[in-house]
Design goal:
Elements lengths: L5 E7 L3 E3 L11 E3 L4 E2 L4 E3 L22 E5 L3 H7 L14 E4 L11 E4 L2 E8 L4 H6 L5 H8 L4 E7 L1 E3 L6 E4 L7 H9 L4 H8 L6 H11 L1
Parallel strand pairs: 6-7
Antiparallel strand pairs: 1-4, 1-7, 2-3, 5-11, 6-10, 8-9, 8-12, 9-10
Length: about 220
């Protein structure tokens, strides 16, 4: 584990239409912004997204609570072996920020980071969907991500600014030291009791979509 959390690469992408390929999980064409490319130099982090980045399905992706998707490079060796993809690296999980020195067990909901001249807040774990499975042509991949807990997480932009690959990730505030991304994943995907679900729903910085989804279990 790196001693200094670092933003090692930044990726952006625009929605594009793609045709089925050999080994695909579906025979239908699809539209996605999953295939992101690295950016050199400063990138502006605006309230709803990085400049130049977009999503294909605004019903479930994007918005202030999901402005930036992060994934830990610490997990890549595991996925290279499990997926037999030796070239797997930055943007492999459709993330905007590939980071080192941080995993779901170190990151907490509500953490505020200073990166470059922008400030971010951790809003929720990333929920893997069928597009991840289709990208790597493995129907089981979304389930594997849940089981491992290697989900990644989302950030909201608290103060707009510019970020550059190589920037240090500085923790400036940690209001909820007990609520790791790992623990939140356990509540969502595990067998948490009603008290634990209610405790997560009450977490102020948690994204509204997670609060609604978990709230249905309480009702």
């Amino acid at each position: 584990m790196a001693t200094t959390p670092t933003l090692i690469s930044i990726q952006i992408g625009q929605p594009e239409s793609r045709e089925p390929v050999a080994g695909d999980t579906s025979e239908r064409p699809w539209r996605t912004a999953f295939y992101k490319t690295p950016v050199e130099g400063p990138v502006r982090a605006a309230r709803l997204a990085l400049e130049g980045d977009s999503v294909a399905d605004t019903r479930v992706h994007g918005g202030a609570d999901k402005a930036v998707c992060c994934y830990s490079a610490e997990h890549f060796p595991y996925w290279r072996e499990r997926l037999a993809e030796p070239g797997l690296g930055g943007a492999a999980f459709g993330e905007n920020f590939t980071v080192s020195g941080l995993t779901e067990e170190q990151v907490r909901l509500g953490d505020r980071w200073r990166v470059g001249t922008a400030t971010f807040e951790v809003s929720q774990p990333r929920q893997p969907c069928w597009k991840l499975a289709r990208r790597w042509r493995r129907k089981e991949l979304a389930l594997w991500v849940q089981q491992t807990g290697y989900t990644g997480w989302y950030l909201r932009v608290v103060a707009e600014g510019h970020v550059t690959a190589g920037d240090e990730i500085q923790l400036v505030e940690r209001p909820l030291p007990v609520w790791t991304i790992h623990r939140a994943n356990g509540v969502m995907y595990g067998e948490a009791d009603e008290r634990e679900v209610a405790a997560l729903v009450a977490v102020g910085p948690l994204a509204e979509s997670w609060k609604r989804q978990l709230g249905k279990r309480l009702r």
